[in-house]
Amino acid sequence: PAKKEEAVVTPTPVKKEEAVVTPTPVKKEEAVVTPTPAKKEEAVVTTPPAKKSEPDKLAQVSKEDLEKQLKEKEKQLEEIKRKQEESEQKSSNVIGEKILFLQVMKYESDGHYTNDLWVLDPDSEEGLYKSPFENICGREFLDLPTGILVVGFEGREKDQRLHHLILLDKENDMSLELKKIGKEDIYWRSQLVYHDKKIYAFEIFEGKVYLSRFNDNLEFEARSSDPVNMNSHITFKREKVFLTSKLQNENSTKITILNKQDLKVIKTFKPEKKKKTEKK
After folding, report:
1. Can you tell me the distance from the alpha carbon of 33 to that of 187, in angstroms, rounded to the nearest whole number?
2. Is the pLDDT of residue 251 over 80?
3. Measured between alpha carbons, how far is 222 from 213 in angstroms, rounded to an integer?
4. How many CB atoms neighbour CB 46 within 10 A?
5. In Å, what is the CA distance from 93 to each residue of 46, 56, 122, 187?
6. What angle do CA 245, 246, 250 make, to 5 degrees?
7. Does the CA dihedral 113-114-117-118 come out positive or negative?
8. Secondary structure class of 84 (helix, strand, coil)
9. Which residues contact 263 (CB under 8 A, 6 or more apart)?
10. 204 neighbors 220 (Cβ within 8 angstroms)
11. Cβ proximity of 145 and 152 under 8 Å
């Protein structure tokens, strides 16, 4: 009976406990826990601050610099407001502190006439004098950054006169001496328009009249693709130029639309006049 009890009891429980408990939990914990969080933490923490730091340095402006910029803007706004108030209080023929006006001296046939351009100094009792350039024939003048613009002519004989854009000197206390003569032949009664730092006038080219553009040094830039009515009124709207004129011997209006950039004629038409309907 002593030999049978030792063989059955001792070997069985020791082998089963070692095989089931130890190997399994160690492998699962290492695979799930360690690799994943280490990669995510490195990507999130290190990269973003490096990118944001450069624009932050460039955008840093001191409080004193901001105050200086604000003061400069306030000065600019005050200057603009002052100039606007001055322009509203004076007429277009008041240039600087002087008053300019044209006076017809001699009327000739076919609409030709000569003018004198006078300057009046309101602060001086003897401040009235005229321009030494006496061959002015246009009906208006313009104040440009480069001088006073008029239409004038060369020569004395009526049939030999060529009319040009003329710049008169407005420096040297408004001397109005001849400064420059343009090359192109300008219609003597042409409207003069200064728009976007460009001069527009009606030019006579090869016996026909065109709308032409010049810079403020009287240098030619562009000419309309087709002839136009010399007595048209020039109007600008966005990227188009509108020429409106009343046709001779007709009770109708002619409108020509041009592309502002190259002065190409887009279309010409006579609009129908419509009567306004009275509201009941």
Report:
1. 93
2. no
3. 5
4. 9
5. 69, 54, 13, 23
6. 150
7. negative
8. helix
9. 211, 212, 213, 222, 223, 224, 225, 241
10. no
11. no
3-state secondary structure of 80: helix
Q: How many CB atoms lie within 10 A of CB 188?
A: 21
Tokens of 165: 């854009």
Residue owning tokens 């032409």: 212
Residues in Cβ contact with 160 at an 8 Å cutoff, skipping those fewer than 6 apart: none
Are residues 166 and 133 in contact, defined by beta-carbon separation less than 8 angstroms?
Answer: yes
The whole model's pTM is what? 0.65
Q: What percent of the chain has pLDDT over 70?
A: 68
pLDDT of residue 8: 47
Mean pLDDT for the stretch of residues 44-59 = 50
Contact 132, 152 (CB under 8 A): no
Please state, in angstroms and rounded to a whole number, the distance separating the CA atoms of residues 100 and 131.
10
- CA dihedral angle for residue 193, residue 206, residue 271, residue 189, rounded to 10 degrees: 40
**How much is the pLDDT for 92?**
78
Per the CB < 8 A criterion, the answer to whether 98 and 121 are in contact is yes
Write down the number of H helices and E strands in the chain: 6, 16
- The torsion angles phi and psi of 167, rounded to 5 degrees, stand at -105, 125
CB atoms within 10 A of CB 224: 23
DSSP annotation of 136 reads: B
At 158, the pLDDT band (50, 70, 90 cuts) reads: low
222 vs 47, higher pLDDT: 222
